[in-house]
Amino acid sequence: MSWKPDKDKPICPQLCEYICLSIATGVYGAGDKLPSVREMAVTAGVNPNTVKRAYEILEFRGIVTSVRNQGTFVSENTLIAKESLENMRRQKTAEYFTDMKALGMDAEAVKKYIEEWNA
Amino acid sequence: MSVLLRCENLTKSYGGTPALKDVNITLESGKIVGLLGPNGSGKTTLIKLINGLLTPTSGSIEVAGFAPGVESKKRVAYLPDNSYLNTWMSVKQIVNYFCDFYEDFRPELAYQMMAKLGISPEVRLKALSKGNKEKVCLILIMSRNALLYVLDEPIAGVDPAARDYIISTILNNYNPEATVLISTHLISDIEKILDEVIFINNGNVVLQKNVDDIREENGKSLDELFREVFRW
Predict the structure, then answer these.
(1) Which residues 6-65 on chain B approach chain A with CB closer than 8 angstroms?
(2) Residue in B40, B58, B39 with CA at minimum distance from that of residue B49
(3) Contact at 8 Å (CB) between A12 and A53?
(4) pTM of the complete model
(5) At B177, which CATH number?
(6) B188 touches chain A (CB under 8 A)
(7) What is the pLDDT of residues B152-175, one digit of tens each?
(8) Taking the domain A11-79, which CATH number applies?
(9) How far does B146 lie from chain A, in Å, by closest CA?
(10) Where are the domains of chain A?
(11) Which domain holds residue B204?
């Protein structure tokens, strides 16, 4: 797992976002079992309570379901995870445009760079 | 959740020099707690008080419901900052030694972890490198089924890869009912695995807080906050 949290921000929401992303991009499919809290803690190198809380938050948001004594599973409906992927895309775009604006580019000028990049 | 450590107005002076002043700390079960402070702030003094190696000048300390002594030591696994093991002993002899000493010691677990590192039970401690010696000490401590693990500077003096090994050993072996108290000043290496931190300075507890709350409120990593609080 190549995930590095930003230590300036709370880790739990970053982990939620990362798991959401993994679900939305199909790393974990609908109905798949997620790694146990301990496994996830060890691979992500974070505190087990952080993972537990992240799983609880994701369950509250309907993205995963936990089954007593069996573990945590990806919900059959992955729409919510995909929605959050969409939000992340918008957010990244906003960040990009803010950065480009700071470099003196307006939206029209940015287009040129995007086209160049694609070529 | 139960309380594993309670210090009330705990004070320790060496001669006339105070090392800890009126410390009040409560630690609950199921947490990984960092005990952070600059050199000479009182970290090791607090740890020695928890383990009954020092007696308080005033105030009280209770570990897993007991005053420090035989009953508390049964429940506390302590990794001191200096190794106390006889270096002429082989790994196997030391494992047997721990079996005799601690009812909760799990030799299979210790051998299993050492095998992963390629450390043979026959090898003598003095033949191991500094890093491997420290790993063996940590493996011995984490192989106990204790309630409170107290690790004094477990990652000082080992390379970054060994630090990662030590951190994953802690995560892999601690039981969710137990609490791990880790003292260190290498904050950036361990801050991701902490639930809570205690900042200690000049013998005073200056902060005890949930780590994600700190990041949320300050927009800073623990390492940055530490540098700010303890700026000289």
Answers:
(1) 30-32
(2) B58
(3) yes
(4) 0.86
(5) 3.40.50.300
(6) yes
(7) 988 887 788 888 888 888 888 878
(8) 1.10.10.10
(9) 18
(10) 11-79, 84-118
(11) 3-229
